[in-house]
Amino acid sequence: MHKPLVLRWGRFSRRADLPTAGRLVVAAVITLLVMLGALSLGKVVLSPVNVLQLLLNGGDPQLLFIVEQLRLPRLLLAALVGAGLALSGLILQSMVRNPLASPDLLGITSGASAGAVLYLSFLSALIGAQWLPLAAMLGAGLAALAIYLLAWKQGVSPLRLVLIGVGVSALLAAVTTFTLVFSPLTTTLSAYVWLTGSVYGASWAEPQALALWLLAILPLLVWLARKVQVQQLDDALAQGVGLRLQGLRAGLLLVSVALAGAAVAWGGAMAFVGLIAPHIARRLVAPGFVGQALMAALVGGNLVMLADLAGRTLFLPLDLPAGIFVAVLGTPYFLYLLINQTH
Questions:
Q1: 179-196: per-residue pLDDT in tens?
Q2: Which CATH number covers residue 239?
Q3: What is the C-alpha to C-alpha distance for residues 37 and 75, in angstroms, rounded to an integer?
């Protein structure tokens, strides 16, 4: 048994698990290698050395434009979208004590999708597409509020939250489909690409905006992090040690909705990332929310970056949405988890 490292400074104390820290470093190095490989591959293939030279010292203007303006913003957006969805999924799974919970299964993604499709169908022609992220986040927030209020019965229990979330998700999916049926063809095509999940055509504005949103959420996530594991205990036991359970659940749901809503707003309704990444993170690091959160963010980012790389390189000259390849991996993994949970 290894002895954890305890860091203390006045009233501040943190326990650092050295094997977990080592695995996080390895995961971060793998992430950098994936990013370097993604910047190298495409219609124009570059060597990793050439990519580094272009980023550090400049060079051929055309190659520099390909790397800095076409590939790098798209890559960073994919990493941030994957990290946001993964963190949202980890929070939901911890909150409802259900390993099958995720933003797309509990109605958050469906709310964002409904908001985005309604906006594309009725408002984008009038005021432009620049407000699409706001519409998606508003849809996710309203869906989460409806789920929370419908699940309330002298408090919110994890089971009711899951059941109500699945029901609201089905209803919102029907609203989305109904809207698409009566929408113009151009709107329908745009909506379907968005519903699949894609970071195609990203400029520097998108990853910058998403990064600022995630940074704004970070302080609340850090404040709630120490209480997450206690919340996973039985309700009576958690309340017995002084935890304000309903307030904590409301805060965790708010953070989860903010993370998923922002990620979906800029990356589309990419399914299964919030389900797969937390499971992989739990297998790689020891129990502890901070370590698992960091690993989940890295795994989620890598998952979407690799999916986007596959989408733009495997079927050249076509550029397919990253969500297709995430779903190809996520569907069998979800069935595997479902079968294991029923045994």
A1: 888 877 767 777 777 788
A2: 1.10.3470.10
A3: 11
